[in-house]
Amino acid sequence: MHALHQFYIDGQWVAPAGASTDLDIINPADESVVGTVALGASDDVDHAVAAARTAFETFSQTSREERLALLDAIIAGLQARLGDLADAITTEMGAPSKLSQRAQAASGLGHFMVARKVLANFAFEESLGKTRVFKEPIGVCGLITPWNWPINQITCKVAPALAAGCTMVLKPSEIAPLSAQVFAEILHEAGVPKGVFNLIYGDGPSVGAAIAAHDDIDFVSFTGSTRAGRAVAIAAAQSVKRVAQELGGKSPNILLDDLGDELARAVKIGVISCMNNTGQSCNAPTRMLVPAAVHDEVLAIAKEVAEGITIGDPKEDGIKLGPVVSQAQFDTIQGLIAAGIEEGATLVTGGTGRPEGLDKGYFVKPTIFGAVSNNMTIAREEIFGPVLAILPYETEADGIRIANDTPYGLSAYVYGGDVDRARRVASRLRAGQVHINGAPTDSKAPFGGYKQSGNGREWGRHGFEEFLETKAVMGYGKVDP
């Protein structure tokens, strides 16, 4: 049993400032209680922010070389404990072991390696005539992260914050706190100066809201639902702090009519990408847009792919689909699948209830809907489960219109035989990232969305720059030749 009853503040593990409530940590694969986590309050946030504010005075003045050395120590620690991180992620949110090892935990190491490279080559100063422009660390940062890619989301904020010279207070998801605990231990062992990194467990209405509203926090980086993102923005507005948000998505996947023999491959990749991480990815391609002439052929291919996905205990070899994270998430997905049926979409495979042979755990059937119109609930709402909606379109212009007809704009996908045509379609899509012909995500590229998918960017140089302020000093020197 894991007992996460202390917070990491000012370089040490400390008890909550006042009386705290303990929350059970549930293994979603078998619904067993694997531990408890203490939920903090605003007093704990005050304590952590004060430590971060004090530490900022010195850490912000460290040299590039000092911060590179610190990142190297953290990278070594992550490499040594990738197995521990992967095991924690599988236990707390149900990702299959291989996915936890190769993607979930590995992404954390990747973000630190990218941040190190950015820091090593970043120009913090430039001359504009007699004016000198400086990029300086923004200050104390509040970092609020979700449960679906826990270490990925923690590290894509913490790594650039440290590289930039910022101090921080992290609130990881209280649903998936085990990997955050391991991460904090890694930073402590790596020698992060006291007060630079602080961690508090807690829920959104208490700790999250206190971070967003805190007058001594200069920047909030939030990843979560669009609903929660609005609340963070409202709370942060009182102190006019900068806010970056990575929120929900309902990403379109347009299959063009020139795929020919590549159609089956494109459909297979699209189905697997939607189901990956049990559909619990904000950038999952959950709306597949296909030419009306091949709609029925696509449904047959998608059905075969979905029914071939192995489901079960995420710790077993060969399992591709684990449970969703919680009872609440399971219930929400069941309700949305029922809505798809009630609104007249064609249920190709899957449906409500657990998969056959699984009577415990938050397992959801891989579900495919066909003949979906873009005004149906399953085409409008982010389901965050293994559910794919397939929508027919008549012309390329019609497909682009449907793809953009969403309040979200995080990611989009295009498959086409003519790459130049696919590029033209990509240029018309209102999304922060577009993947052509199955291209994977790139941790060096900016990640973030248009519209209600958020603002600001994470990952790589663009994510690094979110943690910097710009200062112009006039009369600094002579005009450069």
Q: How would you concisely characterize the structure shown here?
A:
This protein is of the alpha/beta class and 481 residues long. It has helices spanning 42-59, 64-80, 82-93, 97-121, 150-164, 178-190, 204-213, 226-237, 263-275, 295-307, 327-342, 377-380, 396-404, 419-428, 460-465; strands spanning 2-4, 7-9, 12-14, 21-27, 32-39, 125-128, 131-137, 140-144, 167-171, 197-199, 219-223, 242-246, 252-255, 287-291, 346-349, 367-370, 387-393, 411-415, 433-436, 454-455, 468-473.
Please give the structural blueprint.
Blueprint: E1 2-4, E2 7-9, E3 12-14, E4 21-27, E5 32-39, H1 42-59, H2 64-80, H3 82-93, H4 97-121, E6 125-128, E7 131-137, E8 140-144, H5 150-164, E9 167-171, H6 178-190, E10 197-199, H7 204-213, E11 219-223, H8 226-237, E12 242-246, E13 252-255, H9 263-275, E14 287-291, H10 295-307, H11 327-342, E15 346-349, E16 367-370, H12 377-380, E17 387-393, H13 396-404, E18 411-415, H14 419-428, E19 433-436, E20 454-455, H15 460-465, E21 468-473
Parallel strand pairs: 1-5, 8-9, 8-11, 9-10, 11-12, 13-14, 13-18, 14-17, 16-17, 18-19
Antiparallel strand pairs: 2-3, 4-5, 6-7, 7-21, 12-20, 15-16
